[in-house]
Every structure is written in structure tokens, then in C-alpha cells.
Amino acid sequence: MVRKEKQSSRATLSSDDMASAVQDVLDGKSLRITAVEHGVKFQTFQKYVAKKRTTNPDDDQMEPNSTVRRVFSEEQEISLCDYIKTCSIMSYGLTTIQALKADRNISNTRAEQAKRRALARKRAINQQVKPPKPTIVRYAVPHHLQEKMLDISQLQHLLRSKELTDAATQTENDQCLSQESLSIEKAHVQVQVHPTDLFDFNVEVQPIVEVLVAKTIEEALIEVLEEEELMAMKEQQRKFLEYMATNTSDEIESDFNENKFKNFSQNIFRNNYMPNLITSV
User: Fold this and answer.
1) Residue 40: how many other CB atoms lie within 10 Å
2) Which of 45, 156, 179, 181 could form a disulfide with 40 if both were Cys (CB 3.0 to 4.6 A apart)?
3) 38 in Cβ contact with 13 (< 8 Å)
4) What whole-number distance in Å separates Cα of residue 46 and Cα of residue 18?
5) Could you report the per-residue pLDDT of 154-211, keeping only the tens digit for each?
């Protein structure tokens, strides 16, 4: 789509005529009368006169600026024309309401596509393999330094050798041992604890243990009895259903035989006895 060139408001007035007209105004002639005489718009002629008064007389331009800056290139104008033709074909024969509905559907489709793309992008970000966060022990410690730290701790553990004399107070090899407390004779008699001072096991603890054991055994027996009762009920229900099924089949068979005998007797009566009762016509 080629744009039309903008026509100058001076019509066919040459640069010399425009310069002479501007000079007449500068000499004292009326601006409006001069514009009417030369056939130029008053606003355009006023701009030329103001330009002549403000700029250098040798640098002013009196030629009409008819060139127009192009907004689009030729390829862009061709693609724009094709787009306009496609839109006109799509909306040809449609009312205003129908065209608005079609436009709304297209915009909704684009919005849904954008939403799906955003969800897919978010899903891809969540599915990316992320490096594990460092633990508190290994926080901001390089791998080679971690190995060195482990080796040093193992060496310290091997080199730490202490004699353990009492098995009752023995601790693990990798744990620090506290200093041995010095025992002073006749200094800790007031805090001495005898075996029966705090509590008596046979009097205070054993009854509680017996009650707990009895309750546990009772609950276990109740659960076993409930399971046996449920199994007995299921067996009784199965036998009852089998009995009902056999009785139902016997009743159905007896009804079928009875109906069959009844139909047979009716056929015999109709064929042997009924013809003798009907008079010939």
C-alpha cells in the first residue's frame, strides 16, 4: 500500500512568488490581503512570514516540503494489506454482533493459549532437576574438605586410647570421658541411698505390672473370641443361603411340573370330550 504524497497548501505558487509575497508583508502590507491575492491559506502564509522574521534571510526555505516520511516499508505495507484482506474475508457477510462475537472468541483463544503456555513453563521449572540443599553439617563446605575432615576425625578416634578399668562406667570409644570423681570417706553419708529407700519393687511396682499384663491378656482373648464368633456367623449364613437356594429350586421345579400336568389334562379334555358336546351345523 503506497501512501499518497501530501500536497502543499501553497498550490502552484513558486518560491520566488512566495518570497515576494512575504517581502510585501514585511514592507507593511496586510497579511490577510496578501494571502487572498496569492491564493494561499492564511495559516500557512503566516508561518512563512514568522519564519522569515525569526531566521536568517539567507537560510530560510521557500520551497514547498511535499515529501512525506514513510511509516512502513514496502514489505510491511504488503503484509499489512494481506492482513486487512484476510480480516475482511473473515468478517464478510457478518453483522456487527456476529463480528464482535468472533473477535471475542479469537481473543479468548489467545488468552487460553497464553495461560497454557504459562502453566507449561511453570511445570517445566518445577520438573527441573535441582541440586540438593546442603545439610547443616556440610553447609558451604566443599567436597574435598569434607573428606579431609572425616579423615582427621577418624585418625583422632584411633589415636585416642584410654584405659577403662570399671565395666559399669564404661563409655563408647568415640565419646569423651569425664574426670574421675574422687571419693572421700565419711563425706557423703547424708546423701547415701539404700536399696529400699526410694521405693519397694515388690510392693509398688509389681502390682502395676500384674494389672497391665492381665489387661493385655484379656484384650487379646476378647479379640480372639470376636474373630471366632464372626467366623461362626459367616458359616451359618453360608449354610442358610445354600438351604434357601435348594428350596427355591425345588419349588420352581414342582410349579413347572404342576403347570405341565394341568396343560396336558386340559388338552386331553378338549380333544376327547368337547367334540361330542358340540352339535353339528
Assistant:
1) 21
2) 45
3) yes
4) 12
5) 667 666 655 555 555 555 666 555 555 555 555 566 666 676 677 777 888 888 999 9
What pLDDT was estimated at residue 10?
44
d(CA 216, CA 206): 15
pTM exceeding 0.90: no
Separation between Cα atoms, residue 60 and residue 18, nearest integer Å: 12
What is each CA distance from 63 to 53, 131, 165, 226, in whole angstroms? 17, 72, 118, 115
Residue 12 is predicted with a pLDDT of: 58
Phi, psi of 49 (to 5 degrees): -65, -45
Contacts of 72 (CB under 8 A, 6+ apart): 80
Q: C-alpha grid cell for residue 94?
A: 457478518
Residue 274 burial (CB count, 10 A): 9
In whole angstroms, how large is the CA radius of gyration of the chain? 58
Q: Is 281 helix (H, G, I), strand (E, B) or coil?
A: coil
Q: Is the dihedral of CA 10, 15, 17, 20 positive or negative?
A: positive
